[in-house]
Every structure is written in structure tokens, then in C-alpha cells.
What we know:
The structure holds three protein chains of three kinds. By secondary structure, chain A is of the alpha/beta class. Chain A is built from eleven helices and ten strands. In chain A, strands 6-7-8-3-9-10 form a six-stranded mixed β-sheet, with helices on both faces. In chain A, strand 4 and strand 5 (70-71) form a beta hairpin. Chain A starts with a strand and ends with a helix. Chain B has helices spanning 56-63, 86-93, 103-106, 113-123, 129-139, 156-169, 186-203, 238-243, 248-256; strands at residues 6-16, 29-40, 45-49, 71-76, 79-80, 96-99, 174-178, 206-211, 223-228, 231-237. Chain B is globular. The longest helix of chain B is centred in the last third of the chain and has 18 residues, at 186-203. Chain B has a six-stranded mixed β-sheet, sandwiched between helices. In chain B, strands 2-1-4-5 form a four-stranded antiparallel β-sheet, covered by helices on one side. Chain C is elongated. In chain C, 74% of the residues lie in helices and 0% in strands. Chain C is an all-alpha fold. The A-B interface holds A 38-39, 149, 153, 182-187, 190-191, 209-216, 235-236, 239, 249-251, 253-258, 260-261, 263-267, 272 and B 19, 51-52, 156, 185-187, 189-191, 193-194, 212-216, 218-219, 242, 252-262, 264, 266.
Amino acid sequence: MSYxxxxxxxxxxxxxxxxxxxxxxxxxxxxxxxxxxxSGAGKSMIGKAVLGILPRAAKLTGGEILLDGEDxxxxxxxxxxxxxGAKVALIPQDPLTALNPSRRVGPQITDRLVDILGxxxxxxxxxxxxxxxEVHIQSPERVMRSYPHELSGGMRQRILIASAxxxxxxxxxxxxxxxxxxxxxxxxxxKLIREMQERHDTALLFVTHDLGVVSKISQSLxxxxxxxxxxxxxxxxxxxxxxxxxxxxxxxATPKYTDPDGSLMPVPDSIISEVEQEVAAFxxxxxx
Amino acid sequence: xxxxxxxxRDLKVSFPDLAHKPLFGAAPRTEVLKxxxxxxxxxDVLGIVGGSGSGKSTLGRAMIRLLKPDSxxxxxxxxxxxxxxxxxxxxxxxxxxxxxxxxxxxxxxRRRVGGIIAGPxxxxxxxxxxxxxxxxxxxxxxxKSFAARYPHELSGGQRQRVGxxxxxxxxxxxxxxxxxxxxxxxxxxxxxxxxxxxxVRDLGLTLAFVSHDLSxxxxxCSRILVLHHGEIVExxxxxxxxxxPQADYTRTLLDAIPLPDPDQIWA
Amino acid sequence: MRxxxxxxRRLPGLRLWLSGGWLLILVLAAVFAPMISPHDPLEQDLFxxxxxxxxxxxxxxxxxxxxxxxxxxxxxxxLYGARLALxxxxxxxxxxxxxxxxxxxxxxxxxxxxxxxxxxxxxIWMAFPPVLFxxxxxxxxxxxxxxxxxxIVVIDWTRFSRVVRxxxxxxxxxxxxxxxxxxxxxxxxxALAEILPNVLPTIVALLTLEMGIAVIVEAILSFVNLxxxxxxxxxxxxxxxxRTSIYQAWWVLVFPLAALFLTVLSFxxxxxxxxxxxxPVLR
Lengths: 288, 267, 283
């Protein structure tokens, strides 16, 4: 049984324009699934729908989000928030804006433990120090007392990872957590996320636009275009031979310095129009 | 051998460090470029690579004199431009142009595409401007009708093409491209790089391509300059750099690039 | 997306019509006051003092909005009062805007010592309580229309320069400014051709807001009898008179107060509406 199962998830703008078109996917405990797509593919929207933080202009119009077999959408709002707060955590994209610049780091990690889970402050602080140590931060006590601007981008992302794992969530949603970082730091952070996820046996939904990153972090992936699932498979099968023409084009467009002539190929217009038609046909089928 | 287009000698740039400004008195200065020396030959496509804080964008902006270096010399075709004032630079400006990272903020939102491309042309006293605008649009693969559109009506890739059209319309000797594909989706990234490759070939451009990503520039660049903390750690022909990187930092950079390949194992 | 935007746009449209409509009425009233006023605004008739407005018991239909304690026609006085209010709003608002926005643009784009001087000046200026400052100025300059306008410009230019400076600074950091520099545009050219158009929506919104504020300042000065010659009708003067007879004749106070309120509100709403209209991204 998968820890997170999404069935036919449909999200629309207030005016009816679809953002997600009957998206279905599943993530097991201990599994990393990547959500891949270009901008506008709706990959971040899925994570937002699970966390219940859809933007004001968007509306969930159908489908199920099963967490541990229980449909979040059928729960009353308060119970839903409690369940998400206890079981799901987010690693955000931008470590610069995800931490409040005018508060020390320590309380920002422990707040959730104290406020939502009702831990004692001392217990929470001890746990935070433990976690900072676990994400390989030297002298965690000093870092707890620091302000975010005193720390580097990589350091801040480590803190956000530590705070995501703080309450032992069963599911973590990582929304492009390394796009704002240098490649050398990205490598460390990806390895760290993988290490933490394996140790805590967490289900991880990893949103990214970079197929290089996908091959490093995940076991399975879902490719999206315009809010529709284009391909869903395990990583080895995908990189050996993507089934869908759009996936193939995406892979060929991805930079690969070891193969300068076989990478960075523009996605042909014919493939874009092909996948556009497929999406239109899917919509037509739905409304019929 | 002819003189190089650019000769930089011991170039130093520093910025005031406002984070450590004392309550009274001036802020201390941090050195961003710590004495760089290199040449750019005509027809070279130079990749300038480094992490954040390496000084790569500062170097680019100093080369086209968007900022004034503290010391050192910048010879552009033998002319010293390092300390020239804005008035003295103006006649030279049409010869070195820039394509910006964020096409949204580098295109004035209140101007139509045609006006954006025509602006520099009319300032530099070119004639026959409408034809030149059309030509530039054609060269970057945009229909002429785009001249009437506003930047916010275009996609990211199209905006970046407008940025390129604006730069090449002046027929400059040198173009600085500052992280111009980092904000784009992979599909438009590949298109913009291909376009640039083709323009380099067709127009015989000399180009400096600033990027944090070594993997996107292998095909485009003939030489690569690796910067780390404001110093050049490696300056090599592209093929040599990829086959036999000399500096430790270059190797670290290459190792850290995630290849789309599950068999690449990260140590 | 287009539909979503349409919904947001409808409201400013209505706002623009309502506020523009009231201001248009006001302009017409001010221009044609001598022709449409039913009475001489200064003519006193003590036998017709404190007549209520037309819908109340004991009203005289010749005095539509009633009369004040000296028997002067309220409607006529308000129409003439609109002349002064609008004159002050337009001239003082525009001058304040020109002075403040130019200084703000210079400080925000040219930076350096110009910014230093202008910003310090703004800091010092802001430390004065504005109303007392105005009263002081009028006391020195003497009463009269010119004095009021000068006083408003002198007090309020900082409002523009602060906001325009901040806006010009953030626009100045944009790459399109760097790209204009690469293209060889002069500093003045960049300030006028690149930065100014992008700061314009903010300036327009501030300008109309300032016109509203000018109306209020004029009313305050009239209220304390420091505006123009006492026998000329002004809204502020009428409010001051109405205050003394609020229990016997509420209308003497309420009508000019309502006119003042609607005018100031309309100016600020007009500004918000025009700001959107000047923005090509929203348009």
C-alpha cells in the first residue's frame, strides 16, 4: 500500500481553465518519486494540493488525495490540517525567503514541534540540535542562535531540510530545493536529502525541472505536460528508453557535457504540437 | 598574429560591504576580482564559469564598462577603456553589447519590441532603422509582427531572443551574454544556445558567455575561464578543459554536474 | 487568465466613472458658478436666515439647500467655494508634483551627493508638523490664493520626492537601465526615457491624491480663517461657520463637509484607477 496515493486530481483556475488534468500517482514509504516538467506543467501544483496550500486563484475540483489510505479531501478542515501538520513536511525552493530574516534559526525549527505537536520547548530544542548534527552542520548550538543572513545558502537549505525532518513526517514534498544553489552545493544537498530520506524511511515527492537531478535522487518519475501525466515509470527504464516522444525530446534537450553532440537538442515544434493535441483530445474525452 | 580584441591586465574590482558597515564611517570594501589577466582573441567564444560569488558577472560587466574597475587595465583593440568616463565611452558603446540574464527586467516593460531594438540603433546614429529592426528579428527567428508586441506578451524564450536581437542589431564586435539561459526551460534553453551558436558562425561574433553551468557551454565555447573567489583558477581550450581539467576546483565543478544518467555514481 | 483579469478590471472601471463623474460635475459647477448660482453668494437676507433644505418643513424652494445664519444661499456659496477648491487642487497639486517628483527622480537615479542633499532635506522637512508649518508660512506670506498654493507646495513636496526616489532606485537597478547604458544613452536620457515612464503610474496616483490633500489643506486654512479674504465663500469657511450652529441648522455644516469628503475621495479613487490605466502590464 502506497503512503501517498493521488487519484484523478483535477485543479482548475477560478475561470475553469485546467491546471491539473486528472493526475494520478503514488509514492511508497522509503521511495523517492520525481515530478518532472517544464514551467506551467503543474508539477509544483501537485505538492501544493497535497499540502492544502493552493494559490487563491486555483480550485481543487475533483479527485482523491489518500494519505495512508485516508482521503484528505473528505476530512473536515481542522482534522485535515492536523493530519497534514503531523505527517507531511515541505522542503521549499528558495532558502533565502523560506526563513524569516528577523528571527533566529533555532525557534524557526522548533516552532512547529512546540505549536503543532505540543512538545516541550526543551525537548524540541534538543531534537533540533540533534537534527542539525544529522544534516552535518558543525556546532549546531551556535547555528541555532544565528540569524539567517549570517549563513550561506547551502547552510540555510540544510536547516530547512533538518526542520522538514524534525517531526518525523511520513511524506516530504521537496519543491525544486536545489535550483537556487550552486552545482557543488546542489550535489551535497541532494546527497543529504537522499541520506535523510533513506534513514527515516520517508516517502519523498521531489519536484524538479532537471532530468540530471532526477537520475541522482529518485527511483521513479512522473513526467507532466500542461497538467497532464505524460509518462510514469521507474528511473532506469526511463533513462534507457523513454516511451513518450515528448519525454524523449525532453531528455535530448537536457545538457550532458559527456555527450555534447547528443544533448541540448531543441524540442521540435512537431512534438510540442503532438503533445498539445494529445492534451486537447484528453480534455474532449472528459467533457463528452 | 593580430592584436587580441581584449587584453585585461591585473584587473581589480571591489564593492563596499554594507553588511559589515560600522555605525559611523564608510563600509569596508570586499575585493570581488583580485587581479585578473587574460586575452580574448577576435572570433573567440569565451566561457566564463564559476559559482555564486566567484565574480563572473562582475568581470563581464567590467569588460563592457557597466562598472568601473578599481585598478588594472582593459585594452579594447588597443584602446585603454578601464578608467574612461561615460562620455568618452559613448562612441565605443556600439562596439560591445550585452545580453542580460533576466529578459523580463532587461526589456523596458513600457516599450514595444520594435522600439526596444530600435532604441540603441537611433542613439548610435544608425540609418535605415526599420529595416535593421526587421533584419535583427529575422536573424533571431522571430516574425516581424513581434515588433508591435510588449515584452510581457512573450514567452521566456521569445523575450531572450529579443534581447539577442537588440544586441546584434548594432553589429557589435563583442557581445557579453550573462547567464542568458539559466532562467529558461530546457527546451528553450537548447533553442537559445543553438541560435547563439549559429549567430557566432554567421556573423563572426566574439562572445563572452557567463554561466554557472559548465555543461551548457561545451558546444558553444572555444575557451573557458574558470573563476573561483575572484581569481582565475583555469584558462583552457574547451576540449582540454573537459578531457583533462587542471585545477582541483574545475574537477569539483565537473563532478558536481548531475548527468541525466542513473549510472553516474556520486562519490 | 484573461477572464480572471477581466473580473479584477471591472471594479477600477466603475471607480473611475464614479470619481471622474463627481469631479466633472465639480469642474462644471466651478466654471459656470456665476451663471448657475441661483443667488449672489454674498447677499445676506436676515429674514431668510437658517432656512432648511428643500425637503424639510418650512423650506423656501428658492433656497434649494437652505441658508446659513446670515441668510446666504448655501448652494450658491458651495458652487463658488468649488472654484477656490478646484483652483487650489489643480495648481497646487501640479506644482507640488513637479517639484517633488523631479527632486525624487534626481535623488533616486543620480544618487551620490544629490541624493544625500535631497534626502537630508526631506528628513528635516518631515520633522515639522505640517499644519503648523502651513499656518506659520501664511502668517509670513500673508493671506491670499498665491500664499495658499506656495504653502502647499512647500509643505508637501516631500510626499512625492520620497516615493519617487524609492521607485526610481528600484527601477534603476533593473537590467533595462543597464542595457540603455550599454546602448550609449546619456544619464539624463535614461532618467527621462527609461525610468520616468515606469514611475509615471505612481506619480499619477500621488498627483491626484495630492489634489485631494490640497483641497483639505485649503479647507483647514479657511477653517482657521487664514485662507483668502474672509468675505469670499470657501468650503472650509462654511464648515467653520456651520460648526457654531450645528444644533440649529445642521445643513450649514453637513453640505460643505459632504462636498469636501466626496471630492477628496474622488481624487484618490481617480488616482488608483488611472494608475492601472497607465500600466501596460495591467492594461
